Amino acid sequence: MKIIDTHCDALYKLQIAKRGKQSLPLTFRNSDELDTNFNRLKRGNHFAQFFALFLEPDIPSYEKWGYLMEQIDLFHSEVLAKNPEMVHIKKWDDFNHLEDGQIGAVLALEGADAFGNDLIKLRQLYREGVLYIGLTWNNANLCADGAGEPRGGGLTLLGKEVVQLNNENKVFTDVSHSTVKGFWDILELSEYPIASHSNVRALCDHPRNLYDNQIEAMFKKNGLIHVVFNPPFLKKDSETATITDVIQHIDYLCSLGGVKQIGFGSDFDGIFYYVDQLENAAHYENLINELLKHYKEEEVRGFAYQNFLNNRPGCS
């Protein structure tokens, strides 16, 4: 069954290796250190993979745009140029033109820190094909507070302007790292909300997960929630988890009316702990096979890729 995964941090790992913080360089084609290398995407039957642009918060502000551009360059030089089967998805209609054997590669932004208050830079990211934008990672920036910011504030005027620009460009606004107040600010303004990698707070009380009223509001607004495979987001204070734990979150989301708005956002290459038998992108079949024991094939196909395609901007 085809897979669309809306979040991985392979570009961040490639950048760390390039900058010499690792003993050997990484090759996107087959480096074992990459959970989402090409060979694993192929074995996992991926239809498309979203690649997050993520910057560590301690990078000086004046260097952040350069770091971001370097990751985009790695996307072009390491992911696309060296792997002709990887096809750059720059607009939503491009999904319709993927051929057998091809895998869509999509850019996403995790945190607005790199463009600061420079909307010319934001427009450049739209032109690069960034198709969802999360205003924050866990820290605060000029657009909003992140999920780890004790203040817990919402969107600034700049942040609200960015959401409006996302709407105009038919780009998702990602709520996965938002504060509770930031979430509601985004949901009020966004025409295309997504939680690219979040779980259920009622099952695992973690700031990165969503409360029931948030989940219900997302589904009411036709938003997507993509389940993340990070054990601490599946079981509170746990470094281990099973596929059964993942399915419990899917079950709960379905009970709140989300059977047609659920997907997967693994967070591979951005996590340190793994779900048993779901340790990298090649192992998706284990999850799909288990889901088929609980759900109709049409519903599982929805979780795997069809819900995303049905609810992408311009298609709902």
Automatic annotation (TrEMBL):
It comes from the Bacteria. It comes from Cerasibacillus terrae. GO terms for molecular function: metallodipeptidase activity. One of its GO terms (biological process) is proteolysis. PROSITE patterns: RENAL_DIPEPTIDASE_2 (PS51365). This is Membrane dipeptidase. Gene3D superfamilies: Metal-dependent hydrolases. InterPro entries: Metal_Hydrolase, Pept_M19.
